[in-house]
């Protein structure tokens, strides 16, 4: 559903932001990309959204090459960024309505929007409230509601829990679990090792544009993700062989 | 909510059907709603509804006053006909000055002529010190300065604001082509700007008609319609320029500062600087200097003529046995008159030719300077707009030149019919001088010259004259649109 084949991005200033990334996120799977700032997590998501062109390699969404047919590929993907600002003068429902229509959903009724907002845990009073009065947590919830209402099979989440209070983050994780249950392929970049361990079906650690390690949920039962992460970040461990990561 | 079947053809069909023209309407609706709910829309609405009808009403009242003055002046001229009535003339005020004052307030309201001299009257704004200092508010000013500024205020965060908020990323994460986003923003912004403007203009026109303004006479309505359409093109040009800067910038604050600077340059500086620059490149002597030069020329030739005539006059005095110094112009002596004309006419012809040459030379230089100033000013859409509006309103440079041409033609008529049949001799001798003047004997009594008439250009003439500027305004708009599109398409969403 979400697949990167030797995906590489070198910016005009020569910085290699992503180096031959290979990953695959299947339907009903949550893939967490861990890594420090500048590791290439957001670049990966930007490449899947065709926000930037790859230097080489192929980003695929639902089997469609994003670079060749970005508009077709974007029909199958929903996106949530770290700081969902949205349109401050619009109410939550108006924002939801706009992005739903932009995502191709028509003829939705007010109740449909309310239902999605209830699902993500937004309080009823917020439905017709202007978004500029929302807290960050509420805006993130509305952001995930926007992803949900598009009903796209693939989700790209760029550090969605950053800055959320623990309760909001926990609620958010529950929503993600529900989306996984519905068969969505979810690629999430995050700094939050504990949340990643809690929810991810697979975890990839990125460093300086390279995916240096990948573990499945089952493998992580026997390994300490936090220790692995810190070891990789400190440079104690080198990249694993490709075949190990691809397993 | 329905669960997603990732491979379902139904989902594909639904998505296919949904993502199409509908997304443009969605973007358009969002844009309009977003702008209408902002404070700037309230400001726009208030300014339009307040300034446009008010300026039209006040200017219509002023026009009524000018028209009454003009009619009164015509009555006075009629009463004076037979004496000096035909030697002066009055210019009617342009009815469309209500929309664009242009040169209406600074152009002389009339003139009077004497042999070898055209004396221009004071302009219509003379005696209005407040207006002289601060200028008047008219429809042209409201659109040129106020609405262009508001267009910038509407456009400054159209793209850079969305970049900052991250909403552009969210939009572009959907299957929406970038050109549609741009088109939605432009159309939405323009509709939000144009509707209050059109409502306010409509309101102003209703008020004008109710107060007796001749909106439906002499193609005025058509001209007003063209002025309104041009105004919308002008507002669109500024909105697109705002969008261009917004698409090049990543911060709306930066965009706003840059746009304010551009506004000052385009609206305030360029139109004024163009005159200064043109004056430096192609300097032209002032009207006062030319008048002085002409006066000196007349005096010199008169003196030369007097010296040439002196012997004739003195000889005549001796023949008549008059006391020394008791000169006379003997109209009953055909031989004297013949000899006088033989001597004087070449001087008078030379004077006429040289005065005409000074005038022509001065006019040619002024025209060249004016053309240069206009061309320099055309780098600003604000100047181009002002040219179109004043040309349409018959208050532009075209009408100014037309008026001066009409005055010159009138002078030539009066000169042919009156002044050429008159004489004026100045004889000087050792500190004494004698002036002689009157109608030359043998000539018929001077005819009463026809009244001065000034006609405004026909609508076809105004259109033909303003068409290149309208085209230039459209070219500016297209250029800004294409440049915005290029900048937006190439924008790296990081």
Q: Could you please describe the fold and organization of this structure?
A:
Chain A has 247 residues and is of the alpha/beta class. Chain A folds into 2 domains: 2-76 and 153-246, Rossmann fold, CATH 3.40.50; 88-151. Helix content of chain A is 37%, strand content 25%. Chain A has 10 helices and 10 strands. Chain A has helices spanning 41-48, 70-74, 92-102, 110-119, 136-150, 166-181, 193-199, 217-220, 225-234, 242-246; strands at residues 2-10, 16-25, 29-35, 56-61, 64-65, 77-80, 154-158, 185-190, 202-207, 210-216. The longest helix of chain A is centred in the last third of the chain and has 16 residues, at 166-181. Chain B is mainly alpha-helical. A 3-stranded antiparallel sheet of chain B has the order 1-2-3. Chain B has a two-stranded antiparallel ribbon with strand order 4-5. In chain B, helix 2 (21-36) crosses helix 8 (178-210), helix 9 packs parallel to helix 15 (459-489) and helix 11 (287-320) packs antiparallel against helix 12 (334-377). Residues 1-9 and 15-19 of chain B have low confidence and may be disordered. The interface between A and B is large, with 50 and 39 residues.
